[in-house]
Amino acid sequence: MQSSLNVLQAPLMELRQLVQTELRENPTLEEIAPDSDYENVAESGGLQDEWREYFAQRAVAEPWTRESLERRQHFLDSQSRGLSLQEALAQQLATAGFDAHDLKVGAEIIGNLDESGFLRADVEDVAYAAGTEPLEVERVLEQIQRFDPPGIAARDLRECLLLQLQRAGAGTSIAASIVESHLDELARRRIPEIAKALGLTNEEVQVAMAEIAHLKPRPGSIFAPNIEQIITPEVVVVRDGDEFVASLTNEHVPRLRINDTYKDMLAGESREVRDYLRDKIKGGKFFIKSIQQRQQTILSIAREIVLRQRDFLENGPTQLRPMTMSQVAEVVGVHETTVSRAASGKYIATPQGIFEIKYFFTHGYTSKAGDSVSNESVRQAVINLVKEENPRHPYSDQDIVRLLTDQGLSVARRTVAKYRDQLQILPSHLRRTF
User: Which of 11, 147, 187, 267 is such that its CA lies 20 to 30 A from the CA of 181?
Assistant: First the structure.
């Protein structure tokens, strides 16, 4: 059950990783090449005969055992991966010329970095774990902060940015002064206040701000998996006459099968090997079935979205209708949590663009005209208003409430503020330009 849930909720790239892991751990599974004609090959027996001949020859020289079967996994290509942040820093640590004491302290520091590259443990805690003094940790930390990427092992954002400026030879620049003493004002874009405090013009401060904007606030993120950066839709919706049709992009999903050679071996091997193979074949079939169920669930949900969101497909996000997971679950015949797992991290290509499936699940409001309007439609209206505002006189939340009311949308000011925060739109006084 846990395996089935993992397959269902895995986005496409993670699914491929799950498949590679399963291929490595289950020698009876094999992936069908995208351009292969499996049925014809199986009927001709050519490939299968070659495999049977190969295994027959090997069996003469090497008896089949659990260990020998597992060694067959080396025929399956392993999934290569890049270094993690900790691995990259550990390599630099090993070549930094540290003695045994400093290596231990350095390893403890690296082990306490989060995925963004920040040191989240107190120096005192690191010292206690490494069996040394805080001053010793500070000394080693200073060395590790010279590792790549610049800004690594900082204890807060200010230190992270300053480390990067120092590495770039800008440790005494205007940008460094702003980061050192006016980071809070910088976050609030209080340009006149910063300029007055440093005796600069607004233009000089803005130039320095542009320099700071090019720094990395999360230096360790370059080592993070780029799964979320690669969006491959699993469903495509196209117009077919007067209708919209949803279909799966199955070419991106690995196709698996049980190798017939292992099935044949069930008749002639020892009991130990037969039991081992039965277990692996059973697990392989269940894994294949889990992928098939995943695909069918995603397609069923997509088809229901198409039925309920025709106005969106024709006119865009402002016409998105309220739709809940429980409503779709009832029609599809699954539990609401199943819909949630299937919708998260999966993308659908529509005539209006590519969207995550869960984008379509939203509660809503009733407009003055009595129509149902989704939360996402209101959020889109907020986006459009901010895009069209005068940057020197941006709309306040109350202004946005008034303008939405003019559009027939009655929304409270606190709701506008909540949506603005969700959309990462700054308050009006921080959006103002000079």
Answer: 147
The β-bridge relationship of strands 29-32 and 364-366 is unpaired
Contact 8, 294 (CB under 8 A): yes
Task: Kindly state whether residue 202 falls inside one of the protein's structural domains.
Answer: yes
Q: Which of 365, 393, 391, 392 is nearest to 378 (CA)?
A: 365
H helices, E strands: number in the chain: 23, 8
Residues 240 and 315 in one domain: yes
pTM confidence score: 0.50
In angstroms, the Cα distances linking 232 to 11, 76, 162 are 9, 25, 38
E strand intervals along 52-207: none
Does 222 reside within a domain? no
DSSP labels, 220-235: GGGGS--GGG----SE
Residue 402 in tokens:
């008034």
What secondary structure, in 3-state letters, does 314-376 show? Answer: HHCHHHCCCECHHHHHHHHCCCHHHHHHHHCCCEEEECCEEEEHHHHCECEEECCCCCEEEHH
Which residue range is the domain that position 30 belongs to? 2-78+253-288
Count of domains observed in the chain: 5
Write out pLDDT tens, residues 188-227.
Answer: 778 888 899 999 898 888 888 888 888 888 888 887 554 4
355 and 407 fall within a common domain: no
Does 244 share its domain with 263?
no
